[in-house]
Every structure is written in structure tokens, then in C-alpha cells.
């Protein structure tokens, strides 16, 4: 059975694109839909270029989640991947997709997680605190920011001379390598 993924992204969407490209040749897994909460998010241009359906659901839709659920069900979505999505996932969606929603965070959680800790803010804090390592955390979503069960963590070295931009580059490289692989492994186990 083909498994349909929805990728949720609020911004640039480089992970969304990377995941979509990774599964392009996979006959069992398909990135069917990209959802954003921002109508000017660059991820929407990427979706168009990739020929993937996209939809914008404004912030107001994410409190009850009914419209979100309707779109997911219309598109027969089996699995939800957050890739730089900045709003809380409504309980309705969490209950309808138990253990079927994952997120990636650009730090080694529980360090540098929680509300407001996203994107460059994470890397700036890592450098300001003179950390010697950072990395990625891929985890299930449980309704609290960055607190669901951890699936995989991979670390990278942070050198004393690294700027936040350099750390961001190292972390993004880990995201591109591991996020699609983890998604594939989870879905393969669920035949
Ligand atoms: C990534 O660093 C991801 O870990 C975080 O948000 C960023 C999204 O980047 N959750 P992009 O939009 O995929 O380029």
C-alpha cells in the first residue's frame, strides 16, 4: 500500500524539498501534500516547482484543527512530517494520527528546545554558550513543544571559531542526510 506523507513547513522548506526529492523514486511512499501556515512561505514555491499540491491554512485554522483534519483526510494522508513548522499541532490531529507525526529540531534536545527556540535562535544560543557539540533530534510530537519521544539524535562538533551560520550549515547537512532515512525506516516497519 502506498503511504502518503504531508510535510508541514512555515518557512524556507529546504527539508521539505529534500524529503520530497528523496522519495521521488520510491513507489511505496509519496509526499502528497505540503501544508504551510504562511501564504508567503518559500516552501510553497518549492512545492510548485516540484509539482506537489500545497495548501495554506492560516493560524486560525490550527486552534480547533477541523479544517486541517478535513484536508489531511481528503488527501488520504497516512503520516505527517514537520519540517520547520512553527505552530502547535491541534489535539484533534494528535489524536487522529497517534505516533504518526514527527518533527526535527536543530539541536540535541532537551538542550535548546521549547517555545521560541527555533531556527537561527538555536544556533546563536549554542555559540553564545560555547557548546562543543550540537546536532539534530528527530522525535514524535506529543502536543508540547519539542518534548515527544526521541527517535534519533545525531551530533556534530562545534569549534570555538564556528559562527551560528557555520553551525547552521553543519546541522542542516545532518538534517538532509538523516530525516528522509528515518521517515523511510518508520514507514517500512509499518507495512
Ligand atoms: C530546520 O533547521 C529544522 O530543524 C527546524 O527548522 C528548520 C527548517 O529549515 N525545525 P528549512 O525550512 O527546512 O530550510
Overview of the molecule:
The chain has 191 residues and is α/β, with parallel strands linked by helices. The chain has a domain at 1-98: Formyl transferase, N-terminal domain (Rossmann fold, 3-Layer(aba) Sandwich). 38% of the residues lie in helices and 23% in strands. The protein contains seven helices and seven strands, in the order βαβαβααβαβαββα. The protein has helices at residues 14-23, 42-50, 61-64, 66-74, 91-96, 120-128, 164-188; strands at residues 3-8, 29-36, 53-56, 79-82, 101-105, 133-140, 150-157. A seven-stranded mixed sheet has the order 3-2-1-4-5-6-7, covered by helices on one side. Strand 1, helix 1 and strand 2 form a beta-alpha-beta unit. Helix 1 packs parallel to helix 2 and helix 1 (14-23) packs parallel to helix 7 (164-188). The N and C termini lie close together (8 Å). The model has no long low-confidence stretch (mean pLDDT 96). 5-O-phosphono-beta-D-ribofuranosylamine (GRF) binds at residues 9, 11-16, 83-84, 104-106, 119, 175.
Amino acid at each position: 500500500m502506498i503511504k502518503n506523507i504531508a510535510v508541514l513547513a512555515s518557512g524556507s522548506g529546504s527539508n521539505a524539498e529534500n524529503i520530497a526529492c528523496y522519495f521521488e523514486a520510491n513507489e511505496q511512499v509519496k509526499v502528497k501534500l505540503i501544508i504551510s501556515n504562511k501564504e508567503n512561505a518559500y516552501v510553497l514555491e518549492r512545492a510548485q516547482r516540484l509539482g506537489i499540491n500545497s495548501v495554506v491554512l492560516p493560524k486560525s485554522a490550527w486552534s480547533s484543527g477541523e479544517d486541517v483534519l478535513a484536508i489531511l483526510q481528503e488527501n488520504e494522508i497516512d503520516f505527517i512530517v514537520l519540517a520547520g513548522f512553527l505552530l502547535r499541532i491541534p489535539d484533534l490531529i494528535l489524536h487522529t494520527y497517534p505516533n504518526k507525526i514527527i518533527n526535527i529540531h536543530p539541536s540535541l534536545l532537551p538542550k535548546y528546545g521549547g517555545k521560541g527556540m527555533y531556527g537561527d535562535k538555536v544556533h546563536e544560543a549554542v555559540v553564545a554558550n560555547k557548546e562543543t557539540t550540537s546536532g539534530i533530534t528527530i522525535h514524535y510530537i506529543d502536543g508540547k513543544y519539542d518534548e515527544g519521544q526521541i527517535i534519533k539524535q545525531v551530533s556534530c562538533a562545534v569549534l570555538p571559531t564556528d559562527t551560528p551560520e557555520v553551525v547552521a550549515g553543519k546541522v542542516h547537512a545532518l538534517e538532509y542526510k538523516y530525516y528522509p532515512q528515518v521517515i523511510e525506516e518508520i514507514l517500512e516497519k509499518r507495512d
